[in-house]
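dumping these here so i dont lose them again. two proteins, back to back, each one seq then C-alpha cells. dont judge the mess
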Amino acid sequence: MRAIDTVEKLVRDDPNRAAPYVGSMLRDLTTSDQPSVQWHLAQLLAIVDLTDEQTDRAVAWLVERIATTEVDWIVAAHAMATLVELQGRGAVGADLVRPLLEVQTGHRSASVRRQAAALAARRAGGVE
C-alpha cells in the first residue's frame, strides 16, 4: 500500500513519470484484490495519459469495480470519479457510466451514494 501511495503522489505532481509504467500497472495491479491498491490505481488512471488500448483496459477494470455495490467504499468512490473523468475526455460514453452510477446509489456507504448521485447530476447537467 505504501508503495502505490508514493507512486500516486509522485505521478500526481508529474503525470509523465508514469508513462513507461502504465502497461505494467494495468497488467499487474489490476489483479490485486487489496482495496488500497485498487483505489490508488483508480486515482492514477485518472491522471496518466492512456493509449486507446490502455483506456479500454482501464475502463473494463473500473467497470468491474463498480458493476455491483459489493465493493469497498473508497474503491467505489475513486472508480466512479475516474470513469466520469474519462467520460469528460470523451474516452467513455454516458451510456456506460450512467447505469454504473445508478448502481452505486444503492451502496451501503452514504458517502458513495451521495457521490454517485452528485456525479450523475453533474454529468446530466453537462458539467465537466
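---- next one ----
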Amino acid sequence: AVINERIVGSATLHFFKGPGRHRSELRIYLAKEVRRRGVGSRMIQALIDISKRRNIYMVEAQIINEQATVIRAFQNLGFVRKCILDNYFILPDGELRDVAHLILRLRDSTEEF
C-alpha cells in the first residue's frame, strides 16, 4: 500500500503445487500509523479476490495469537480460527510466540478442482 508516495504496507499471496494447489497463503504487514483505518482489510480483500479468480478452495493466514485486533479484522472478512500453533513464531530476540491459524473457505471441497 502506498499513501502520499510512501510505502506503508505490503500484502503477498502465496500459491502451492501438488497436494496443496487448492490453497493460498496470505501475508500482510502495515506500518503502525495506518493500522485500524481499513487499509489492511482492503488489501486482504484484494488478495481474496485474486484467490477466487484462481479457483482456490481456501485462503490461509497465520497471525501471532496475541494480536487480537488483527485476528478480529480477518474474522470480519470471514476467516475462521482453526487452531493455535504453540511456539510457532520466533522473534528477533529469540522469544517464541503462539500463532493462530485462520482459514477462509472460498469453495466447497466437493466441487471439482
